[in-house]
Specification:
With 317 residues, the protein is α+β, with helices and mostly antiparallel strands. It has a single domain, classed as 4-Layer Sandwich (Glutamine Phosphoribosylpyrophosphate, subunit 1, domain 1), CATH 3.60.20. The chain is built from 8 helices and 13 strands. The strands form 2 sheets. An 8-stranded mixed β-sheet has the order 4-3-2-6-5-1-11-12. Strands 7-8-9-10-13 form a 5-stranded mixed β-sheet.
Length: 317
């Protein structure tokens, strides 16, 4: 396999320029809010960008961006309408991180429409980083969140069909086993990140992936930038990909090169032909990069009110 050089798209799809490596000084920080997200999430990034334009805060933007797929019954990998585990439970994982290094997460949460907001409440209202299962649910209810059934008729029907054979094998780029990861830069130039998912379809009851793991699904450092992940979370956790990408950028790599190097950590060690992992990175200049193992990973960006979906480069091109 040959690794392909990725020409990072700027402006409209089809034009390209090679990103320069970031510096850690403050002379060339992003001057406009920007938000990026994994997969085709135009409504999510637009909603997040609009929220940042209202409040100025990157944290508000990434939370608002996650709200869109969390509440969409047609998005079978995130929140309401998510495909259940093999026992028929829709269980949710999410995390959020701000520019100060504060973070919150929930795992194995059931019955709450917006786990990303519960994660933010964990960050802002408790001394902890992560709450799980029944404890996370109790906390959410105590904070005023409402419990509801997240298993839609369509997802229940799909689960009942799956039970006939109960064959468990994630399929590359089928988004019923992917997440939404988001990164944003606010009006003050600060970075924030978020991730939300209902996890692998038909997973074992109790399985938790990378989506609530700080340093796995999301990591932000306001001196450098941020990164987020999607795909088969077990391999993101085993390599702490988002943290790794931010550290590569700290060393001077461009966001694109950092994503490529993080993917290489996986392909050099594991049998990668049957699963997908994709990474996004955003530095404090507003430069971004993306790379994945398999072809077919795309991401969405909203900047200056313009939203684009961009195809990522991949190792297996």
């Amino acid at each position: 396999m040959k690794r392909r050089t990725f020409l990072q798209t700027s402006g409209f799809i089809g034009s390209a320029t090679i990103l320069k490596s970031p510096s850690l000084d403050n002379t060339s920080l992003a001057t406009e809010p920007i938000i990026i997200a994994t997969w085709k999430n135009e409504k999510g990034t637009k909603s997040g960008w609009d929220k940042m334009m209202q409040t100025g805060r990157a944290l508000d933007g990434v939370e608002a961006g996650a709200w869109v797929p969390e509440a969409d019954p047609n998005e079978t990998s995130v929140g309401y309408g998510g495909l259940p585990d093999r026992d028929g439970h829709v269980t949710l994982d999410a995390c959020i991180m701000d520019h100060l290094g504060n973070a919150g997460a929930v795992t194995f949460l059931e019955g709450i429409m917006h786990p990303i907001s519960v994660a933010r409440a964990v960050m802002e209202k408790t001394p902890h980083v992560m709450l799980s299962g029944a404890g996370a649910l109790k906390f959410a209810l105590d904070q005023g969140f409402k419990k509801q059934n997240l298993l839609t008729p369509a997802s229940k029907k799909a689960w009942e069909e799956w039970k006939k054979e109960s064959k468990y094998k994630p399929i590359v780029n089928i988004e019923n086993h992917d997440t939404i990861g988001l990164l944003g830069i606010g009006k003050a130039g600060e970075i924030a990140g978020a991730c939300s998912t209902s996890g692998l379809a038909y997973k074992m009851h109790g399985r938790v992936g990378d989506s609530p793991i700080i340093g796995g699904a999301v990591f932000c450092d306001d001196e450098v930038g941020g990164a987020c992940a999607t795909g088969l979370g077990e391999f993101v956790m085993k390599t702490l990909g988002s943290f790794l990408i931010v550290e590569f950028m700290r060393q001077g790599m461009s966001p694109q090169k950092a994503c490529e190097e993080a993917i290489m950590r996986i392909v050099k060690r594991y049998k990668y032909q049957d699963f997908q992992v994709g990474y996004l990175a955003l530095n404090k200049k507003g430069e971004y990069g993306a790379y994945s193992i398999q072809k077919g990973f795309n991401f969405t960006i909203t900047k200056n009110g313009i939203t684009q979906v961009i195809e990522s480069a991949s190792y297996m091109s």
